[in-house]
Give the backbone structure.
Amino acid sequence: MTIEKDVVVIGAGVTGLIAANRLVAEGHTVAVLEARDRVGGRTWTNDIEGVTLEIGGQWVSPDQTALLETLVELGLETYDRYREGSSVYIDQHGSRTEYTGDIFPLPEATATEIERLVAVVDEYVAKVDPDRPWETPDAAALDELSFREWLRRLSDDRVATENVELFIAGAMLTKPAHTFSALQALLMAASAGSFSNLVDADFILDKRVVGGMQQVSERLAAKLGDDVHLNAPVRTLRWDDEGVVAIADGGVEVRARQALVAVPPPLYSRISYEPPLPRRQHQLHQHLSMGFVIKVHAVYDRPFWRGAGLSGTAFSPYELVHEAYDNSMHGSEQGTLVGFVSDQHADDVFALSAEDRKARVLDSLAHYYGDEARRPVVYYESDWGTEEWTRGAYAASFDLGGLVRYGADQRAAVGPLRFASSDLAGHGYQHVDGAVRIGREVAAEIVADLPQPAVR
């Protein structure tokens, strides 16, 4: 089947679908080719053993104005994450403390030092333009130094630095803090408005979408109708100054003036480019890699922690599950806890059998919530590392020195080829909001380059 369109979009996640809808609104024709049997990319709302779970991205925060606008446009509603009651913190000695407020219940000197570090990081973040972090003062030096080492140079209090690490390494980039730079960490914070926003769970994890976040992609795809093709992984992109030919499985061939590759950077190499991409892109793409986190869902007959006066929010840099939240679905009588196991901890538990891994994870949840946490009626692990068309979570980030060396070129067009995803966003980096923003931006760039459409 040969299709002729103005633009071929590779990937039916939020970025690709936002861009495709914008292009259609400007009078251009599109074909969206998606490798999976569903739309949504790293957003996925699915029924597991009769329970609806958010397998992928789900949160909405107040600063995510592009996503909030899109939810209104699509007729989707939000609801607040449950947060009434006390949070739980476990320290380096395994001591469990219930607390309220934003400050971890640590010795006064360490708690004060954490507050000081957050303020210092925010001073640096204020100098970072998330769209051009490589232009930050002292960018090269900040990009050569790991986030861990940078924090340790700022403070001798190891408990303080370990707790500050948690909010970037475990909770966001999902890589060990010695493997990415201070500049990459500052970009992560700047993309959310400030580091203070990232350490405030009530801000960054504010709301959820009634019915699930995947509906954003599903409703965007519905507007495009038959122009969205599933089970069509693109294997070859032939390109020259005149346009592109995208060849996908199932005998699908799309001829277009331009192509938008709207997939995570580690998947770029799954496509054969004829002719090959320039050397700069080959090198650049090798320095962007996915993090790794397991999103664990434990569903119970009821949200038992609420009866104990707990909000469901829990933190510890010293636990296997480094953070957890009440993730009960809107209108459900059942209670769901969602916990996260990231970076090397995720590597370690995947060396275990599924049964032993489950036991280890539930033990960690029990340290926070008590023995009842060991007895869920449904247990499920979102393992995006095994997803052929994702290969990790939440997003891609640069290795040491990569952001300054390659950052300015990561969105550079190559002839008629463009690259965009939440991994490459500035504001909203690695969030659904970033996917919306960069989808809008790249659509505007394509429209500016295409001839004006004829009246149809």
